[in-house]
Automatic annotation (TrEMBL), chain A:
Organism: Marinobacter oulmenensis
Protein's UniProt name: Heme exporter protein B
GO BP of this protein: cytochrome c biosynthetic process; cytochrome complex assembly
Cellular component GO terms held in the UniProt record: plasma membrane
Keywords associated with the record: Cell inner membrane, Cell membrane, Cytochrome c-type biogenesis, Membrane, Transmembrane, Transmembrane helix, Transport
A molecular function (GO) term: heme transmembrane transporter activity
Domain of life: Bacteria
Pfam assignment, any one: CcmB
Segments crossing the lipid bilayer: 40-58, 70-89, 109-133, 145-171, 178-202, 208-234
Coarse class of the protein's main subcellular location: membrane
The protein's role, per its UniProt record: Required for the export of heme to the periplasm for the biogenesis of c-type cytochromes.
Localization per record: Cell inner membrane
Family annotation (InterPro entries): Cyt_c_biogenesis_CcmB (IPR003544), Cyt_c_CcmB_bac (IPR026031)
From TrEMBL, chain B:
Top-rank taxon: Bacteria
Biological processes annotated in GO: cytochrome complex assembly
Matches recorded under Pfam families: ABC_tran
A molecular function GO annotation: ATP binding
Keyword Zinc carried by entry: no
Keywords annotated in UniProt: ATP-binding, Cytochrome c-type biogenesis, Membrane, Nucleotide-binding, Translocase, Transport
UniProt name for this protein: Heme exporter protein A
SUPFAM superfamilies for this protein: P-loop containing nucleoside triphosphate hydrolases
Limits of the ABC transporter domain: 6-211
Amino acid sequence: MNAEFRPLLKPVDQAVGPVAAMVAVFARDVRVAFRQRQDLLNPLLFFVMVVTLFPLGVSPEVAFLKQSGAGILWVAALLSVLLSLDHLFRHDFDDGTLEQLVLQPQPLFLLILAKTLAHWILTGLPLVVLTPVLGIMVHLDGNSIAILCLTLLIGTPVLSLIGSIGAALTLGLRSAGVLLSLLIIPLYIPVLIFGTGTVAAATEGAPVAGYLALMGAFLVLALTLAPFASAAALRVSLSNS
Amino acid sequence: MSEPLLQAVNLECERDERLLFHNLSFSILPGTVTRVEGPNGTGKTTLLRILAGLNDAYAGDLLWCGQARNRQRESFLRNTLYLGHRPGIKPLLTPLENLRALMAARRPVGDDTLLQALAGTGLAGFENVPCRNLSAGQQRRVALARLLIADEPLWLLDEVFTAIDADGVGAIEALLQQRAQEGGAVLVTTHHDLQLPGMNRITLGGAANEC
């Protein structure tokens, strides 16, 4: 028996760095998503449908839409992110990719950050891109639309990041959808309040810098804390499966 | 003989208020193949998941190279390869893309090597077919291709012979034996009648009857 055939333990300097591993995780998620494009369209379609149906169902009056348009768009975006959350880890859990992810030598919270970033780029960002069109539809003026886009640009990553905690926690459960919503919606409420509050302030001509700073604080907080919480939740979920 | 890679001391695991095993102690030495055996439901997969670091619901100590495993998680993870029931193959990606993504976390490998590994598991010509169009055995083979390029000293393989044809089973047996001769350590669970010269055994199922 020749144990000296090759050095047994790998020296640390040959390790794949965290950044390279994050890029690989991100690239795989994006590639998988583009192989299944209908899943990408689903939250977008939901967003457009809710915003289109609101004037039909409630009131098509310009005054009403001007006043509530930003709120409608924010609620629709929030629900549409919520709708897509269950997919964040579910497929990976089912095919075993998640086990391999947890067993990667790189810090798990960074890999989850890469996954969440991919989720945001594939669901949150398209919503922001669609917002100007829908904003015009609900008679928002140019300034309000710009502020609305900005709040969604800051806010939707927060939704994805907070949502990743809920998705990780409910992973092992069979009826995860309901519990996921119940867990996550309360945490979404502050983001929603400040998101719509910013646009309301902008419409009245009040300064919005304070609101935007608060939303930025939400983003920084979520960015630094949520991946750790998701990583811990994922370990628990996998441990019980 | 050399130092044990992984050591379990008085390992105990309870699942759904049933004691799966207790007082389980063993060492995994470099250059050995160890088979975990026992009837269905005796905790073979649970044991492997505990050893791999996926399941924390256990009592007892796990030592990696003589020190507590959980204190040197990075070294342990970098030097251990775990293949589970669900091998981490994405049905929407091709075998080549799957292998590339799995290896990206471990060490940079060129596409030539990956293609060779896929050919080595009998998947030549299927490199660019989405995995969902492949048979169950072929999908397993995509995961097994990792074994041909893996340089981790410790392999934890759960039901590695599932859905593999007779020729494939022979090839895997030969691979495991060759791996042991090279100084690697292999731990397998299987219902297949694996007989290798010098193979160690861990038998589960005895402890469950005691309580």
